């Protein structure tokens, strides 16, 4: 309930600030655009799971145009003399002075979790040797339901339109693909966790065997934060 109350308060602040800034300059409109996106992600954090952007093709998102990129410092310095807007930005963006910077890219993908609904999870550490995952299939039971979890951090700048792509291959032939919108995030020392909707593993004697999965983590600016391959082996049971 506390999380929902915060979301409602932030939405009220958004409405008040938007009304007060109707006659401000174009740079304020750009700021509001980014802040509204960030507010959407704060609200999404209270929901049980994310919704897939699409599955199968990319027709639903081909006309999407990402907002212009603006660095975090520019957002924080806009209208520094406007007390209401300053408080609004602090509520949404928080303080970035003490955010941990581990070096490397702005977005760090730490781990992927294969999470069956009624079985133990398998965690893949994405900070080390990625080549091993393709050759060590996760043994799974045919027809079992599962989710994919991604654990990541954003270090410096707001990132817009994070997405997770995956394609499944059997004997060299692509048999399935998926594309999930992960969302927009600001810098934070703590890790974010994304959960895909529940999916179902192949079922039937003819569909048992090893599947290779090619995964990719990107954003609206076409930055590729990580690409990796992993595999799972569909069997009659978990062992």
From TrEMBL:
Claim: Signal is one of the keywords in the record: yes
Extent of the signal sequence: 1-18
Its biological purpose: Inhibits GDP/GTP exchange reaction of RhoB. Interacts specifically with the GDP- and GTP-bound forms of post-translationally processed Rhob and Rhog proteins, both of which show a growth-regulated expression in mammalian cells. Stimulates the release of the GDP-bound but not the GTP-bound RhoB protein. Also inhibits the GDP/GTP exchange of RhoB but shows less ability to inhibit the dissociation of prebound GTP.
Gene Ontology terms, MF aspect: Rho GDP-dissociation inhibitor activity
Gene Ontology CC entries for this record: cytosol; membrane
Domain of life: Eukaryota
Keywords: Cytoplasm, Signal
Assigned protein family: Belongs to the Rho GDI family.
PANTHER family: LD16419P (PTHR10980:SF3), RHO GDP-DISSOCIATION INHIBITOR (PTHR10980)
GO biological process entries: Rho protein signal transduction
Protein name stated in the entry: Rho GDP-dissociation inhibitor 3
The species this protein was found in: Patiria miniata
Subcellular locations according to the entry: Cytoplasm
